[in-house]
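Protocol step 4 of 5: obtain the predicted structure for the target chain.
Materials: sequence only (see below). No template structures provided, no constraints applied. The aim of this step is simply to have a reference model before the mutagenesis design in step 5. Sequence pasted as it appears in the construct record:
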Amino acid sequence: MSASNTSESTSPAAKIEQHLISTYGLLLTREHLADVLKRKVSGLNWELAKADSSLRQVLEPATLRLGRRTFYRAHDLAVILGGKLPYNA
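Step 4 output (structure tokens):
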């Protein structure tokens, strides 16, 4: 199997995951997430602080909290951004 055949059969989520990992690493910070979503960090912080935020609910499976810091798993974000979840914000 050639390299071109494997890249053609790659799912959109896998391509997104490759891009996220090559650009940001396995865990993304809130600043990285704002860059990916093309939002200001302050606006993203405001949205994620609301308890009833649909964006917060969608991102919950990708969220990892270590102490006071919040990170987002690249693999889970790729699945969310690739549209594999039944609910998108």
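Step 4 remarks: The CA atoms of residues 30 and 45 lie 8 Å apart. The radius of gyration is 14 Å.
Proceed to step 5.
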